[in-house]
Write the structure tokens for this entry.
Amino acid sequence: MTLSIINSLTNSSSIDTFGVLAIVFYLISWALIAWHIHTEERDSSTFTMITRSGSWLIAILLHGIYLYLPLLSHEGLRLDIISAGSQVIWLTSLILFITTCTRRIDILALFVLPLAVILLAVELIAPHSGQSVQINGALGSHILLSLLGYSILFLATLQALLLSVQNRHLHNHQPGGLIRSLPALQDMEDLLFRLILTGVVLLSAGLITGFIFLDDLFGRQVLHKTVLSLIAWVVYTTLLIGHWRQGWRGRTAVHWTIAAFALLILAFFGSKFVQEIILSR
């Protein structure tokens, strides 16, 4: 009985249904969050807050089911460029949702949720390239830590960009519009460095588990990925040390954060783009 239920849920059409429903609820969530930010002073009832948070949480759950339900039928984890991007944005959405419970940074959802919709839509329409990966304990820990690290550091990059816009508006004495919905500048910087520190810890753990459990980490096909990831780790670590010892902040923090994440993008998604799209032609 249980096996038949799993088989019915893990067929292609059922899984795609979860993806489509996730897109619908992401769009509903985006509209509610945008309306809340636009009417912050007039729209603070408990009902609207529950509706807004509930629709976002449902979207996250449906997105997660769509991504990981195939594991129940032993299909393996899809790690092609689109599927990997969808997993990163799903984790980013989940982490942001949790963060907004204590911090007023709902505005970041206006950028994260559309990305989730786009990647889900492409994943539903486009054929999957690359092979699925059968997950075991060692490999699973490496993949999970790496994806979590990428997700938190992506969120840190969005936070850095938002901090840059907020800083420019305040210096130009233009605190209105979306900027007034944000926490104080000091709180925004504090959150940025907390995200970077957490992301670096996870990235370090991902690299360490890769060195321990993967045999070809310096193989020809993944050498550039490993090297670029290590360089990104050095840039992030230097930024954290500079912030702790020299008080680096503001534009310096923003530029270093963006540069380090650009290296991570090249390391992970750049290598996948070359292998799956350019070399496969």
Notes: The first helix runs from residue 2 to 9. The CA atoms of residues 32 and 52 lie 6 Å apart. The radius of gyration is 20 Å.
